[in-house]
Design goal:
Blueprint (H helix, E strand, L loop, with lengths): L14 H17 L3 H7 L8 H17 L11 H10 L15 H19 L4 H23 L6 H6 L2 H14 L3 H43 L2 H14 L1
């Protein structure tokens, strides 16, 4: 007797494994790694433990600043290099350790602190530093808020946003060459337009999709039992 082939049963994902996968994806998104990190992550082996390395980078920037070593010129490139050299090797890790959730806030703190100390040492406009920190902070908040609702920002945003590593290297190079103010102005304007436009368009698309889904659900509820039966019969005959 010929029987209809049965579809293979879809294996149920392990809840613990799925939780760890989502946790890793969220923490990696919160890191805001850019194209340089993604290009080198696969060549760094197992990588360094993220929390100790990121904390060391933050403390090193504080020590260099407190020691009065930051003077106009090439020395202003030192803090970004410290952060990049210590934190970039942590990218290959899965961030599943008990305290690995501390990595994104430590990294954001190291990035913001480095921006501020370089800007102050190079006598950049303070309002421009504030706007840059605000723009990057808004991008971080938007990423956290979206992922907590399982709405993931597209990968190209993190690459286009240059990532923490390229942002710091660009600022450090501009300061070392004495061009920090125009570099900050261009970088801030670029990131503001990028993050604002992408965020607004994404939320508008989400609102439209939610409104459409709500309208369809309301239409289904308003349909009479006879119409619902006819629609179900028609779909069954097509199948």
């Amino acid at each position: 007797m010929i029987t209809q082939p049965q579809a293979a049963a879809t294996p149920t994902p392990d809840p613990d494994e799925e939780r760890r996968r989502i946790q890793t994806a969220r923490l990696l998104a919160y890191r805001d790694d850019g194209p340089l990190v993604h290009a080198l992550a696969g060549k760094l082996g197992k990588g360094l433990p993220p929390v100790p390395a990121t904390l060391a980078a933050l403390l090193a920037v504080i020590a260099v600043t407190a020691g009065g070593l930051l003077e106009p010129g090439p020395m202003l490139l030192v803090p970004p290099l410290i952060v990049v050299l210590l934190v970039l090797p942590t990218a290959p890790r899965h961030h599943l350790g008990r305290f690995d959730w501390l990595t994104p806030p430590l990294l954001r703190g190291a990035e913001f602190l480095t921006m501020i100390v370089i800007g102050l040492a190079a006598d950049a406009p303070k309002w421009l530093l504030f706007v840059l920190v605000y723009v990057v902070g808004y991008h971080t908040y938007d990423t956290v808020y979206r992922t907590r609702q399982s709405i993931w920002p597209p990968a190209w945003v993190f690459h286009a946003g240059l990532g923490w590593e390229l942002r710091l290297l660009i600022i450090g190079a501009g300061a070392a060459l004495g061009w920090l103010t125009p570099v900050l102005a261009v970088l801030t304007a670029y990131l503001f337009v990028l993050f604002a436009v992408e965020s607004v368009t994404s939320w508008v698309r989400l609102d439209k999709a939610s409104a459409q889904a709500g309208a369809e659900a309301e239409q289904d509820l308003e349909a009479s039992p006879e119409e619902a039966m006819e629609q179900a019969t028609g779909e069954a005959e097509k199948a």
